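User: Show me an example of a complex going from sequences to structure tokens.

Assistant: Sure. Here are the input components:
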Amino acid sequence: MRRTTVISVACMTAAALTVTACGRGAEDGGSAAGQTGAAVSTGKATGTITVWAMGAEGDNLSKLTKDFEAANPGVSVKVTSIPWAAAHDKFTTAITAGKTPDVAMVGTTWMGEFAGSDAIDPTPAQIDKSAFFEGAQKTTEVNGTSYGIPWYVETRVVFYRTDLAKKAGYDTVPTDAAGLKDMAKAMQTKAGAKWGIGLQAGGDGSWQTLMPFAWSEGADLTKDGGKKYNFDSPEVLKATQYYQSYFTDGISNKSAPATPTTEPDFVNGTVPMFISGPWMMSAVEKVGGAGFKDKYNVAPIPAGSAGSSSFVGGSNFVVFKNTQNRDTAWKFVQWLAEPKVQSKWYTISTDLPSVKSAWQDPALASDKKLAVFGKQLETAKAPPSFPTWEQAVKGLDTELEKITKTGADPATGLKTAQQQADSIGTGM
Amino acid sequence: MTAQTGTTGSPTGPVTPLPVTAPGRPDHGSSRGAGDGGSPGRVGSGRRREGRAAWILAIPFCLLFLAFTAWPVVQSLFMSFTDTKAKDLRHPFSVNIVGFDNFTKALSDPIFRKAAANTAYFVLVGVPLTLLLALAAAVALDKGITRFRAVFRLGFYMPVITSIVAVAVVWRFLLQDPGGLINTVLGWFGITGPNWLGDPNWSMPALIMMAAWRNFGTGMIIFLAGLQAVPAELHEAAAIDGAGAVKRFRHVTLPLLRPTLLFVMVTTSIGYLQVFEEPFVMTQGGPLNSTITVTYNTYQQFGFGNYGLASAMSYLIFVVIAIVTALQFRLLRERS
């Protein structure tokens, strides 16, 4: 018994000592606004760099990096492919242990966190930021400093069945919000569809379907000079009321399953319209089989008072601060942003280029559906790159679920989401 | 950081020898004292040497335990009293001590409260249901089913060893509305089945149903062992005294089964209090947070990078588990 007492006293003393030794220094994290990385040397790249990339991109990237190695003799690019599900943890661990790769593909929503832990390098001036779509470039910016480049992009547009639309009396999708709703209604009344349009009834990521409408009304998700979240602005409210009306009018299914069945529903005509990203083209064509390509089309998000806007997502490429080969790392990133490399990457992966001029490549320019995405990308917007974004927007998703499913008051819901976001803070 | 990988129901680690001791086997005749009869001094030095050898053999385990079990526990306990966020992980000690702030914050968070209520619902309905199913299946296998017993035993146990991901896919088909098997069968009897996973009132019952189905196999195997350890003589004696099957079950089998019951109840409750996989693969906590559980909420908070708050949540669930387990031990302890 006595020995246990001695041990526990010792442990408590040790703990007390540790505790007194901690505490934050002066306000750490987050660096001064508007930084530019040091210039990168000119000339050929040298040495070895390690690159991490996720998912299909990770599997295919080495096909592309061969060209870089060929153009820079003696350079070796080591690509490590990591699954998306494990990626965030792996990065956090690597940052904690100081064992990051030189260069990595990262999700756009991680930028705030990684920049906050002082792990990634600001973009040097040699990289032309105006070459990218504006919304995509914004995803690399944290607190006014740009870290890395947008590598590939995606945006959301309206998918619709052309054959059923014709039955409903439409050749194209109307370009105003009220028109879109009329068309969805006509899909039910005239074309025999069960639901007019598939909109996500709250739940994870539903803000990505709501925000295109809000951004088209001119919404800004931050206020007070980018220091606070702004979920309950009149613009977001207007879009939310509009979004809710699809559910109250029975045009959209409020109790759709948690795992959506978008592709089969689209193919068999139960839900002949939905809003989603470019990957859905190959997905519905796969389910629809031969010839389905001509049975559907895509159209931009209908314009609100601020024109047509949408959500821009995708992935960025960053250079980590503790790289041993900074020059080569940035040269590689710069090379990835070259229009030729971007359009080559499209042919390998079908990821849409983030560089505007890459869209003039015949492989992209000849595709009419892709052109819609290209046009939408010019005005598409990204959410703020606060480290707490995912947590804050979770509150919005939850409220949106109440608004769509139980018919809760949009104004109250947005106010609740705003209060939660305020108590979470931006984390900057 | 510990609680987020809760495997529902399935007792982690090796299943310790059952608390049921087969009657008639003396369990106190250990070999202690059967020494070589040497002088007391020699015995003492031999003991010491033995003790040293024991320590040397135990050191690798102790070191591993300290490094990979004790330290993370201490670290996460420390974390729960600080404002640690994901970006602080590089400098884990340069954070502020916030006392019990994380705990009060968790307890006043409406989503955490909702999660706690959901978890209570899951445990209060799920544990008795699972226990009943397990006991019924064990009794059936012990008495009723004589042919193909091994096949049935395997069949009932199969869900336990099947990957939850595969189970989730199948159950999502079963629970689909309309057109799922369950609702189709209900339709034959003129019952309109609910939209199980889409309706906030029915999503939790659906998950409980699935969890009970998935986990009763473990309890069944243990109950079966317990039932087979009930001596036949006692049953015979009771039968001679005129007790029917029900009476014998109530007054002979159940009392002898109490230690087994305690074990199954404790392990099932611990697993169910940490329920995570079912909502994670089936509903992601929805619809309308009707299936969000404490462990799932904790997992989300870790994902958001709120390590301090998430650790505090883990410790809250730990405390609840400790209390519930202690209560069950009190309730079902051996009465002498």
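The lines above are the inputs; the final block is the predicted structure for all two components together. Residues 1-38 of chain B have pLDDT under 50 and may be disordered.
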